Amino acid sequence: MQNIEEARIGAELMAGSEPWLTLRRDFKHAYNLLTDPSMEVYIGRVGGDVVGFVMVNMQGAFAGYIRALAVMPEWRSQGVGRQLLQYAEKRIFRESPNVFLCVSSFNPRAQAFYHRLDYECIGELKNYVIMGASEMLMRKTIGPKEAFLPVS
């Protein structure tokens, strides 16, 4: 992410889209997340237009965690999400053999998307964000940590 305008566009996208609507995440929450200096945010563009973004956390126990992936409504089902995800995976696999993400139980379209791209559900966090919904912890791996050599 290069500027405040991109953060504003991304926050508006999140605040007006699922799963963030159901999770009751508003513009302020999304904007604060997108401008958090500990996050890496990569913007997808077509021409000069922002078409989506992916947010990656490379710190902590789950280094390589995809915190958010969002695509503008008019660009969905056109491969933008797949390209953003693949970009994030390449970034993560330079430092970690695992990519982690959570997908909401009420978001079957997103679950199917990640399954198609070889993500495996490795756990369920019941009532994690909101009562009555789970976050499904998913992982894509290229091997165990003990055998992994970071790319320098």
Question: Can you put this structure into words, describing what you see?
Answer:
- One of its GO terms (molecular function) is acyltransferase activity, transferring groups other than amino-acyl groups.
- Residues 1-143 form the N-acetyltransferase domain.
- It comes from Pedosphaera parvula (strain Ellin514).
- By secondary structure, the protein is of the alpha+beta class.
- The protein has one domain: Gcn5-related N-acetyltransferase (GNAT) (Aminopeptidase), CATH 3.40.630.30.
- It has helices spanning 4-15, 27-34, 80-93, 108-116; strands spanning 39-46, 49-57, 65-71, 98-104, 120-126, 134-141.
- The chain has a six-stranded mixed beta sheet with strand order 1-2-3-4-6-5, with helices on both faces.
- Helix 1 (4-15) packs across helix 2 (27-34).
- It is globular.
- 26% of the residues are buried.
How many helices in DSSP terms? 4
Average pLDDT over all residues:
95
Going by CATH, what is the homologous superfamily? Answer: Gcn5-related N-acetyltransferase (GNAT)
Q: Describe the strand arrangement of the main beta sheet, using strand numbers.
A: 1-2-3-4-6-5
Which structural class should the secondary elements be placed in?
A: alpha+beta
Helicity range: 25-40%
Computed CA radius of gyration, to the nearest angstrom: 15 Å
* Coarse shape: globular
- From the 3D structure, determine the CATH topology: Aminopeptidase
- Tally of strands: 6
Q: Roughly what fraction of the amino acids lie in strands? A: 25-35%
